[in-house]
Records
---
Amino acid sequence: MEYNYDTTNLLSKKINDNTITATLYLAAQKNIMHAPMYGIEYDNKKINLSKVNLCKKSTNGCVAACIYHNGLFQNSHFSKNKIKQARIKRTFKFLLQKNEFFEKLIKEIKSLKRKAKKENLRLLIQLNKTSDILWEKEEFEYKEESYKNIMEFFPDVEFFDYTKYDILKNRKKLPQNYTLIYSRAGMNKGKLIDSWEDLKAYLNKNISIALVCSYDIKNELLNNETYDDYNIYDAADYESGKISIKNSTEGSILLHEAKKGTNINKNSAFVIQTQEDISNYLV
């Protein structure tokens, strides 16, 4: 039996005066396990949901604060939560109908390229909005041709993602048009995953890092152009194409804001909330 995992679109897009930013939302972490609650059918002989984890390096703090669990329809009934239903369907399509998934992804990116060219806009693609997949290793076939990854198919399109994988060890060989930004993890099970020295090791290798902060701390840090001599920016400005972090000898620091209502695991140190947090984790 062939299951229908089609959704209206794979990519969500935002358009401003100079950039189209298209993002892919999948079922974060192990949330595909909830498929039956959303009325989504699947063949349990082809997939073991308990073994699927799209964020293998996730920590207690990022799981709690993840945008997948926060925001629109956060508390709505399963059957009415169309957003999460669509994310789970896209995930099944990626896992079980891979070539069809990439065929649709290619069609959508081609359409966005045409729009960007027509309106003289920059195009940015983020595939890991709610996941941490190694897209550089995701091979597929399209029209009887094999491709190493989607970046190879679109060498003139800019892709970017945040990741908690150790980029220096696990993701060294990246396509030229794929920018990875290390996402600070904080504490996990009582252990600090990434000290300031660890983060500086990325920055000194021209790999940018991302931090999640409270509103007040984010604005305080952005009052200066640098932190510890590294350029510091609002991550929203990068994602919307207002700034570029390329063509630099060092990485930059990108600040995300933990929006009001975000679930925060205070013991995880994932969200920098106070001056004490800065002293403990960014010095």
---
Amino acid sequence: MFIAAALALAAAALADPGDKGKGKAQGKNKFSFQLVNTDNRCDGSGAWATLNETRTYQVHDNGDGTFRLRRVDKGTFTTLAGTSPGNCTTNKSKHGHLIRAGVTGRFGGYLEGTITGGTFNKKATCAAACFTSDFITAFFGAGATFSCDVNSTDCKFNFNYTAPSRSANRPRLLVRHWQDRGKGAGSMLQEVFHGDIASS
């Protein structure tokens, strides 16, 4: 997941936040939302797949006025025809060049950092899609800052995508596992791409 997508994902996405924007509570300080989204290629040239996902925000009070936020994404993807997600010069692993439309698979991953300058309101509601910035503003206030949105070493993420070898994905794919992981954000970002979802 190209880092711009990892932090904000697609601005044009659709979503069903459920429960009138409160999300589905899953235990202490966990909030889940259903999203329809897109994911970008590692070269930043645009979307390579449509995502249907459950996004869960997990909030931990550090006890010093800051909060640890872990965003967990899990769902399915369907590819769009064009350049494959791993086809970029920074990907030094084996990868392809193109992906055909209609290849399906599953993905999962997380984004984790620290929130400062905000006050946590666990009874807040999140309007519309409830992407990361929406969640932070709704649950912590407009003055809150997330370490994954600024120049910082305090951010980490890891997203993995797999297209199973099954009849619906034939002809056989050239590469069928794609990983985008890293640490830091902004000028301190260290991002590593591995593999691809590619048909040629």
---
Amino acid sequence: IGVEDLPQHIVASRGNGSKQHQVSAVEPTEDIPAHVPWTEAGVDLNGILEDMEKKLIIQALKTSGGVKNKAAVLLGLNRTTFLEKVKKMGGTLTSH
């Protein structure tokens, strides 16, 4: 794909447009951790993030001895944000 394939308003915003620029496809990253279940169909990002958030909250509660204010500080969260996240997780959250 060359500059000539781009919409005119984009070409005009880049200057005179006389140079040919090639747009290459984005190559897949090799930085995806092995434990992330990446497949040809992709991943369930929301599920992965929810699982990680739950694990981090549980670890923070263990580390803080169950003191929610300290757990929030460990995670860099405001206490109210932390409590909202814990409440959202409902009965699925245990620190044992």
